[in-house]
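hey so u asked for the seq, here:
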Amino acid sequence: MRLKWETIVFITSAFCAVFLFSSPVLAHPGKTASDGCHYCRTNCDKWGVPWNQRHCHGGSVSTPTVTPNSTPSSSSDSVSATSTTPVTEVKKLCSNQDTCTAKANIVIDGDTIVLDTGEKVRYTGVDTPETVDPRKPVQCFGKEASDKNKELVAGKEVKLVKDISDKDKYGRLLRYVYVGDKFINDSLVKDGFAHSSSYPPDIKYQEQFRKSEEEAKNNKIGLWADGICGNPVSVEPENKPIEQTNADSNQETVQNQPQNIEINKISNNKEENNTDRSENNKTKFSAKERIFMSLSGAIGGIYYFIKNIF
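ran it, structure tokens below
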């Protein structure tokens, strides 16, 4: 029994010794090389170990030396000695630059984008209907303008050009935006997706944007189309007879003068014939009266003559 207890005590002591001496190796996760060293790339702050620095679990920091034409003792040593931290390219910010090229990562709405630098850009000199402003409801033709902006710039390299101001009061870059030779600000206005909206001192293209807006209105496209956003629907005028001008009327009068003269002549002749007939009728009636009077006189004379004789 005594031997048994001694065995138990021995095994327990040996286990504690192994645990205590090996605990530095298990200070944090990660495989070690044959020399007990490795690079820390996971939860280094939690274990109090510098990031991406080679260290040994005895507490020292090891800087491996690589000898040309040397053969590493093991594959794990080779990986540990030659591993490097991936370098992430840091994009140069477009803030305070007159011109800058970047990628349009996110399209927020019709006139605002986010670059791959993390900077937000507001198009200068134009304004599209709101779709994401929490203070306002989604405005008419806002979704169409946002979709058009995505079609023009999403995922593409854009050239940004500053006017005078660098940023607005919300911290957004104020820029004219180009994709190749296409002027995005002006294109949105000309195609009826945006209003011209320039504010001093950024008025370099104010007149160009104003003319583009007038062109869109005249063509009745986009948000200026008939029946869109409360715009009245145009009614086609009915076909009306062309009114005669004074010149046409005078010409027609001159052309009709001979015909009118002929008609007047015929009318006058009819009146003359009617007059002649009336005169003839009058003449015939007077002759009858004279004959009747003559016969009456003759009969009266005969009657008077016979009465006086007898």
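The beta strands are 37-39, 54-56, 99-109, 112-115, 120-123, 126-127, 157-161, 173-179, 182-183, 195-196. The chain is about 40% helix and 15% strand.
lmk if thats what u needed
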